[in-house]
Amino acid sequence: MKKLALTALSAALLTGCFGDDSSNDSNTVDTDDIQGHIFIAQLISGDYKTSEIAIGTVGESEFVENYASQDASDYTIDVYEQYLYHIGRFNIDTLTRYDAAADFLQADYTYSLAEAESSSSNTHQFVQVAEDKAYVIRYGKTSIQIVDPSAVDEQNFVIGEIELSEYVAEDATYPRMTRALVHEDKLFVGLQRLGNADSSYAVASDSYVAVIDIATNTEIDTNESAPGLKGIQLNADNLKAMAIEDDYLYVAGRGDYSDNSGALDRISLSDYSVDTLIDGSTFAALNDVDSGAYYHVQAVEVVDDTLFVQINLEGGEAPRGYIYSAPISNPANFTDVTPEAFAGEKIAVIQSGPDDTLWVSLDNVETPDVYVLNESAEVQGEALEFSMPVREIEFMEIQD
Fold first, then answer.
1. Can you tell me the distance from the alpha carbon of 201 to that of 213, in angstroms, rounded to the nearest whole number?
2. Which residues on neighbouring strands pair with residue 266, listed in sequence order?
3. Are 249 and 266 in contact (CB under 8 A)?
4. Cα–Cα–Cα angle for 233, 234, 235, nearest 5°?
5. Residue 21: pLDDT band by 50, 70, 90 thresholds?
6. Strand ordering across the sheet containing 274-278
7. Residue 16 — pLDDT band, cuts 50, 70, 90?
8. PROSITE patterns, per this entry (predicted)?
9. By three-state DSSP, how is residue 351 classified?
10. pTM of the prediction?
């Protein structure tokens, strides 16, 4: 799929730079002629020294790169309505906001997420729930920050916090909150509960999902009849991803970095009970014990009535990724639906997209492509050919 130089974009698509830190400063991002969805992708170089953002229109064959170029790689993105948030993570600790209503011309602000005389916040997600309220999901802290994204200065940005220190595993320092999503006025927060660096961040305790009442900013006790932690105990170690549909929350945990394959858990939203859909034996045929290759449950996404799971085979001589799917009505029946177009390739991320699609990015510095699949896992059109691997994809709807 064709990439456009910044100076060659037509007015009907996107033109120009993306904030003050772009490597180009002569153009603007013009959203006036765009209707529908745009995609925003966080790109990270293969040597993990640089990063940038790419942006394009969903369904079109052209996109642009070199937005928000950085001489550091640990960045991620989140979106809320017309706002794009560019998040600097470990030892960067910044939050920069751009507004589609202003054509992404300049950053609204860049606020520090660091705390004085403290370790890095290492923010993993920024979950906005209203114009004046968002949650900062901090991998390197014991509490969620509550912030006002509309604050006109940094002094009025932080407005509260929710303490989750009870989830810190023995001999660890932080609960390692890593993913979060909102559903029906509740914030679901995934906590890995890993050990510290001196243990190579090994699995220390069972992962949990804490449930927060957005109206009161208090944690909900998901099992009032039992003592202990209020959250939902998982079978999926080292939580990596979550997805939700009307009745269930799906949680993928990759396990450790050897023979613990992790799991895929399904949580009932009515009573918070947990069923395990995938465990360490489900795809045992993929393992090559002699070479030290084991599969890991890396991610989960819901596309209409279909559940998609990313399985990574790691270790050994030929690491690679697979896409498995199952109907939500029968989630015990998983089938390998990896398209031939990228069979044998390593997969970086999967992300559900507009119009019942699944976007798949390859973890390959030579061909860092993104494929768009339909609900049947059929490739739609040509691959998007980026200059470096895509590590995060978000979508934004552009309206009049």
1. 30
2. 250, 275
3. yes
4. 135
5. very low
6. 239-244, 248-253, 263-268, 274-278
7. very low
8. PROKAR_LIPOPROTEIN
9. strand
10. 0.92
d(C-alpha 357, C-alpha 378), whole Å: 10
**223 has a pLDDT exceeding 70:** yes
Q: Please enumerate in sequence order all residues whose Cβ is within 8 A of that of 306, keeping only pairs 6 or more positions apart, or say none.
A: 325, 326, 327, 328, 375
pLDDT at 20: 40
Cβ-contact 254, 227 below 8 angstroms = no
Could you report the per-residue pLDDT of 90-117, keeping only the tens digit for each?
A: 999 999 999 988 777 789 999 999 998 8
Q: Is the pLDDT of residue 143 over 70?
A: yes
Cβ contact 388:48 at 8 Å: no
With contact defined as beta carbons under 8 Å apart, do 311 and 324 qualify? yes
Q: Say if CB 126 and CB 136 are below 8 A apart.
A: yes
Can you point out the beta strands (E) in 89-138? 94-99, 109-112, 123-130, 133-138
Look-up of token digits 């007015």: 11
Using the predicted structure, report yes or no on whether residue 14 has a pLDDT greater than 70. Answer: no
Q: Give the helix ranges, DSSP H, for the chain.
A: none
Tokens 């550091």 belong to residue: 72
The three-class DSSP label of residue 388 is: coil
Strand 83-88 and strand 75-80: the pairing is: antiparallel
Residue type, 185: D
Confidence at residue 22, expressed as pLDDT on a 0 to 100 scale: 38
φ/ψ of residue 166, rounded to 5: -65, -20
Q: Are 250 and 265 in contact (CB under 8 A)?
A: yes
- Rounded CA gap, 46 and 389, in Å? 7
* Residue in 338, 340, 392, 344 with CA at minimum distance from that of residue 364: 344
d(CA 122, CA 112): 11
What is the overall mean pLDDT for the chain?
Answer: 91
Strand partners, 274: 267
First to last CA, the chain: 28
pLDDT digit string (tens) for 272-291?
999 999 999 999 999 999 99
Q: For a pLDDT cut of 90, what percent of the chain falls above it?
A: 80
Q: Is the pLDDT of residue 28 over 70?
A: no
How many whole angstroms from its chain centre is CA 276?
A: 22
The residues pairing with 371 across neighbouring beta strands, listed in sequence order, are 360
